[in-house]
């Protein structure tokens, strides 16, 4: 009897499988999915994507598929079928239909590390309120009246800590970064800049969120954050990924440290005057947020304010070093600003920032070429017809900003760093769907203006203090020689640096 029933069960299962397969095939044909391939079972093309983005040139991953399938294609990333868009019009459509046709949806490796209460994963009215709150701490008025002073002070403080001779490999170890971390900052000469810039941005973000000044606690926290960030673009499988397992462990340490701060502030808020920072605003918002909700929210903001800005600062130095004419023009602009000051350490003012015309060209071009926000993940809330294709309900989509920014159809010599392109009317006024370094729509990065100011002040302080140049690297250990700029203060109280400028030089 059992021998008779077993074949029937197998036949029944096979019939169901065949029915579902045909139904799926019919649905695929009826919906007309974008062309492409789903790659390997489960893994899809995730490993190819991760491998590409851990190199200095991830473009072939996109280029090959766009050439074969067009700017909209089907792939399979992080365990799910995904529609990949390298088309600016489609990207804008996705951004503007947030909460209507699309909702935020990120791979488990990212969402698990950020926490379910992070701003990145919030939806609906809660996201709208918290996004507005975040922007209120990073708008132009706040930066002008309060943050600019802290930004300038922290940058000068970090630069003052430089010794006369810095070895890049040693600085890289201090930073605890490894080649292939996905940031695009893999070479040793960039590591020292990443170490300095990451300290600046992390300390500034901690100050803004929790009113903490730089110290041993902030530096310990920063080192754990580095490990968290390394786990973002890995498969979320702790048993198979050492990087992801290490990131989860670091995330736990960071959450525990932040939880202690939140609990202490809750006790203080009932006794002392409330501090004017993000944590104070969360505690006083009347929403009765739990400790976990506040910790997730702040943890994600620290990641956003720290990783993206520090990396863009590092790459700006790299691009300028490789483009001497741009560096010379930038230096001239900042020397003129500094020449009007009565003292070399006199703080920058808002009018100084607003006068940095060529600097803004450098900032725009760095953001375009570097693509710190390479793109965004969303999920289709219903079947969506676009460009002759259908994105099925429940499918994930990835709108690639990087692919658009580096497309020669939109920018001449798109993969060449050329800040002067932003002085021309054609590219300076390019459509909003073409230039999207901070995303767009309801989820526009709330710290976009702050990031621009930090990078501008950082460039001002470095080009007026040092001269950086590169030479071919022929040794494993690349010393950087840092000589501080000789300063004099003429009798007319107008300070100018001597022509013998400091050097940051990679020595063979």
From TrEMBL:
Record pathway: Plant hormone biosynthesis; brassinosteroid biosynthesis; Hormone biosynthesis
Domain of life: Eukaryota
Cofactor needs: heme
Pfam families given in the database record: p450 (PF00067)
List of residues binding heme: 445
One Gene Ontology MF term: oxidoreductase activity, acting on paired donors, with incorporation or reduction of molecular oxygen
CC terms in the record's Gene Ontology section: membrane
Membrane topology recorded in Swiss-Prot or TrEMBL: Single-pass membrane protein
Disordered: region residues: 486-508
Membrane-spanning ranges: 6-22
GO BP terms: brassinosteroid biosynthetic process; brassinosteroid homeostasis; sterol metabolic process
Keywords: Heme, Iron, Membrane, Metal-binding, Monooxygenase, Oxidoreductase, Transmembrane, Transmembrane helix
Cellular localization per UniProt: Membrane
Record family assignment: Belongs to the cytochrome P450 family.
Name the record gives this protein: Cytochrome P450 90A1
Organism the protein comes from: Vigna mungo (Black gram)
